[in-house]
Design brief:
The complex is a heterodimer of chains A (325) and B (309). Chain A is of the alpha/beta class and 325 residues long. Chain A contains 13 helices and twelve strands. In chain A, the strands form two sheets. Chain A has an eight-stranded mixed sheet with strand order 6-7-8-3-9-10-12-11, with helices on both faces. In chain A, strands 2-1-4-5 form a four-stranded antiparallel sheet, with helices on one face. With 309 residues, chain B is an all-alpha fold. Chain B folds into two domains: 73 residues, no CATH class; 215 residues, MetI-like (MetI-like fold), CATH 1.10.3720.10. Chain B is 74% helix and 0% strand. In chain B, helix 6 crosses helix 7, helix 6 packs across helix 9 and helix 9 packs parallel to helix 10. The longest helix of chain B is centred in the last third of the chain and has 39 residues. Classes of the chains: A alpha/beta (325), B mainly alpha (309). Chains A and B meet through helix 2 and helix 4 of A and helix 8 and helix 9 of B. Chain A: InterPro entries: AAA+_ATPase, ABC_Ni/Peptide_Import, ABC_transporter-like_ATP-bd, ABC_transporter-like_CS, Oligopep_ABC_C, P-loop_NTPase. Chain A: GO terms for molecular function: ATP binding. Chain A: It is found in: Cell membrane.
C-alpha cells in the first residue's frame, strides 16, 4: 500500500530578488517498509520537498502553489494546522543532519525525548522519563539511565545522532524522513548509524525517505532512488538497475565521480560546471550547460520524465543513447 | 561551584577597598569645606574652625583620615554627619529601603514588560508591530530620564490627575509606581530590544525547526524552546543593570521627591559630607557586585554548557 505520495509538487520562495522556484513538479511515492533515496546536490530541492512533506517550510517566504501530498490517502496540504501538527512526530518524523544544532542546547536529552510522550500521549513527567530511557537503550546508548539527564553537548556526534533517531522513533511513526542523517559524522560512525536506522525501519515496517548526496550510503539501504536536479526529478529507478545502467547523463556523472579502488592513481571524474542559480534556471533541460552529450534540442525543450522501463523514468531527450552506452 | 562563589566573594574585598578609597579621594579634592559651611554666610572665627576640624580629625593627612574611616567601618561605625549630628548608619537605614523598593519595582517592571514586548516584537520581526516597538524603544533610549520624568509628571499628575506630582509618603508602594516606571524607562528599552533581537535570531535556529517537526504546539515551541535560549543574553544585561538602576535613582528621586539614597547622596554632596557619600556609594557598589554574582550563577542554570570551577 502506498504510504506517501507526492503529486506534482511545486514550491516557490518569494525573495527580494524575485521568485525562486525551488521545486517544480516533483512526483514520488513510498510504501510501508520501503526506502526511497532522494539524491541530489545542494539546491536541487530535495530538502525543500522533505520540508514541504513535513510541514515545516517557512511560509512565507515559501509557498506551495500547486501539488498534493497524500499521506495514507489524505492530502495533507488541505488539512488544518492542528491536524498536521498532530501528524508531525506521531505519524511522520524527521531526522536532521546536524544533531548538535538540531537539539536544544539548554534542555536535557531526557526532557527532549520525553516531550514526545508528554505532548502526543499525555504521559506524566515520570512516565515519559522511563520511556526516554527505554528509547535510549533501544538506539544502543550505553548507560542510558545515567545519561538521560545529560545535555546534548555532553554526547559524542554519533551518540547525538542516535538521540535524534530515538526522538524520531519515539511514537513509532509510519514514515521517517532522514535529511542527510550521516553527513556530519565520522565514516565509521556513519555505517553504525545507517545500520541502526535500517534495522529499526525493518522492525517497525516504516517507510523511509533518505535524503543524501552520498551514493555509497544509498547502495546499501535504499530500494529505489529519485535523482533530483534543479527542482525536478531527472531519474527514478530501483537501486540495482540505476547503478548498473543509469538513464540520465547527470546520474552517470554522479556514479562516475565515486572514487574507486581499481582506478587508484587516475584523476577522479567530476561533473563540469556548477549547479544552476535557482532564480535563473537554464532554458530547456536545466542540466544542458554541464551535460557532455547536450544537443540543440536540450537547450530549447524541457524533456519530460519518460518511462524507460518497469518502474524507471528518465528526463533526458537521449535516454536511449545514455542507457545503451 | 562552591569554590567559584567563595572566590567571587573574596574578589569583593579589593573592589570594596578600591571603591571606598577612590570616592574618599574624590571627596577630599572637591572644593568646599563641611566645617566652614556650618556658618553659612556669616563670618567665622578661624580658630574655632580649626578646633572643630581637629576634633573631627579633618586636619589629618588623607591616608590617616581614610584609615580612621576604615577602622570605624569595621567596627560598624559609618561615621556621623557634621551638620545634623546624625549617624550615617541612621541616614542609610532610613533611605536605603526606599530606594531598594523603588529599584525592585523598576527592575520587575523592566523584566516583565521588556521580555514580553521583546518577545512579541521578535516573533513578528520586520512586521508593523515590530517597527512600532523599535521606534518607541529608540525614543526611550534617546530621551534623558529627567525629561521623561517631567513629561510623565505633567501628563499623569497635572493633566490627568491620576497621581500626585511628587511622592508624599515614600513608604507607600502605589506612589512609587510612576517614579519606578520613569526609572525603568531606559532599561526597559534595552531589554526589549535585546530580547527582540535574540528571539528573532533563535527563531531561525535548527532546534526550533526540530521542535516544530516534533509536532509540539506553538505555545510550547515558543514558551519552552525559544524563550529559554533567548533569555541568556538578557540575563547578562540585567545583572549589570541593577547597578545602573540604583545610580539612575538619584535623578528620579530628585524629580519625584522620593526620600531615598539618591536624595541623601545629593544633600550630602552639597554639604561635602564625605562619610555619607562614601558610605552610600560603597553600599551601591556592594549591591552591584552581589547582583552580578547572582546573575552569573543564574546564567549557569539557564545554560548548562556553562560550568563554574
Amino acid at each position: 500500500m502506498t504510504l506517501l505520495e507526492v503529486r506534482d509538487l511545486h514550491v516557490d520562495f518569494h525573495t527580494r530578488d524575485g521568485i525562486v522556484k525551488a521545486v517544480n513538479g516533483v512526483n514520488y511515492s513510498v510504501d510501508a517498509g520501503e526506502t526511497l533515496a532522494v539524491l541530489g546536490e545542494s539546491g536541487s530541492g530535495k530538502s525543500v520537498t522533505a520540508q514541504a512533506i513535513m510541514g515545516i517550510l517557512d511560509m512565507p517566504p515559501g509557498r506551495i502553489p500547486k501539488g498534493e501530498i497524500l499521506f495514507q490517502g489524505e492530502d495533507m496540504l488541505t488539512m488544518s494546522k492542528e491536524q498536521r501538527r498532530k501528524l508531525r512526530g506521531a505519524k511522520i518524523a524527521m531526522i536532521f543532519q546536524d544533531a548538535l544544532s538540531s537539539l536544544n542546547p539548554v534542555l536535557s536529552v531526557g526532557y527532549q525525548l520525553g516531550e514526545m510522550f508528554r505532548v502526543h500521549q499525555g504521559l506524566s513527567r515520570k512516565e515519559a522519563r522511563a520511556k526516554s530511557i527505554e528509547l535510549m537503550d533501544r538506539v544502543n546508548i550505553p548507560a542510558a539511565k545515567d545519561r538521560v539527564r545529560d545535555y546534548p553537548h555532553q554526547f559524542s556526534g554519533g551518540m547525538r545522532q542516535r538521540i535524534m533517531i530515538a526522538m524520531a522513533l519515539a511514537l513509532e511513526p509510519d514514515l521517517i524522513i532522514a535529511d542527510e542523517p550521516t553527513t556530519a559524522l565520522d565514516v565509521t560512525v556513519q555505517a553504525q548509524v545507517m545500520e541502526l536506522l535500517a534495522d529499526l525501519q525493518r522492525e517497525f515496517n516504516m517507510g523511509l525517505i533518505l535524503i543524501t548526496h552520498d551514493l555509497g550510503v544509498v547502495a546499501d539501504v535504499a530500494d529505489k532512488i529519485a535523482v533530483m536536479y534543479a527542482g525536478r526529478i531527472v531519474e527514478t529507478a530501483p537501486v540495482k538497475e540505476l547503478y548498473k545502467a543509469p538513464a540520465h547523463p547527470y546520474t552517470r556523472g554522479l556514479l562516475d565521480s565515486i572514487p574507486r579502488l581499481d582506478q587508484k592513481g587516475r584523476e577522479l571524474y567530476a561533473i563540469q560546471g556548477l549547479p544552476p542559480n535557482m532564480s535563473r534556471v537554464p532554458e530547456g533541460c536545466a542540466f544542458h550547460p554541464r551535460c557532455p552529450a547536450a544537443q540543440d534540442i536540450c537547450r530549447s525543450e524541457l524533456p519530460p520524465l519518460a518511462e524507460v522501463g518497469a518502474g524507471r523514468g528518465s528526463a533526458c531527450h537521449f535516454w536511449k543513447e545514455t542507457l545503451g552506452d | 561551584m562552591g569554590r567559584y562563589v567563595a572566590r567571587r566573594l573574596l574578589q569583593m574585598i579589593p573592589v570594596f577597598i578600591g571603591s571606598t578609597l577612590l570616592i574618599f579621594c574624590m571627596m577630599y579634592v572637591l572644593p568646599g569645606d563641611p566645617v566652614r559651611a556650618l556658618w553659612g554666610e556669616q563670618s567665622a572665627d578661624p580658630a574655632q574652625i580649626a578646633a572643630l576640624k581637629h576634633q573631627l580629625g579633618l586636619d589629618l593627612p588623607l591616608w590617616h583620615q581614610y584609615w580612621n574611616y576604615l577602622t570605624g567601618l569595621f567596627q560598624g561605625d559609618f561615621g556621623t554627619q557634621i551638620a545634623s549630628q546624625r549617624p550615617v548608619a541612621d541616614v542609610i537605614a532610613q533611605a536605603f529601603p526606599v530606594t531598594l523598593r523603588l529599584t525592585i519595582f523598576a527592575f520587575v517592571f523592566t523584566v516583565v514588560a521588556g521580555v514580553l514586548l521583546g518577545l512579541i516584537a521578535g516573533l513578528r520581526a520586520d512586521k508593523a508591530l515590530d517597527r512600532v516597538v523599535l521606534f518607541f524603544t529608540l525614543l526611550l533610549i534617546s530621551v534623558p530620564s529627567f525629561v521623561l520624568g517631567f513629561l510623565f509628571q505633567y501628563l499623569f499628575a497635572f493633566k490627568l490627575g491620576w497621581v500626585t506630582p511628587t511622592v508624599q509618603d515614600s513608604e507607600a508602594w502605589g506612589q512609587l509606581l510612576l517614579p519606578a516606571i520613569v526609572l525603568a524607562g531606559l532599561s526597559l528599552a534595552y531589554v526589549t530590544r535585546l530580547t527582540r533581537t535574540s528571539v528573532a535570531e533563535n527563531l531561525r535556529a535548527d532546534y526550533i525547526r526540530t521542535a516544530v517537526a516534533k509536532g509540539l504546539p506553538h505555545r510550547r515551541v515558543v514558551g519552552v524552546h525559544l524563550l529559554r535560549n533567548s533569555l541568556i543574553p538578557v540575563v547578562t544585561f540585567l545583572g549589570t543593570d541593577v547597578g545602573s538602576l540604583m545610580a539612575g535613582a538619584v535623578v528620579t528621586e530628585g524629580i519625584f521627591n522620593v526620600q531615598g539614597i539618591g536624595n541623601a547622596i545629593f544633600e550630602a554632596l552639597n554639604r561635602r559630607e564625605g562619610s555619607t557619600v562614601v558610605g552610600i556609594v560603597t553600599l551601591i557598589v556592594i549591591v552591584y557586585l552581589v547582583a552580578s554574582l547572582i546573575v552569573d550563577l543564574l546564567y549557569a542554570v539557564l545554560d548548562p554548557r556553562i560550568r563554574y570551577a
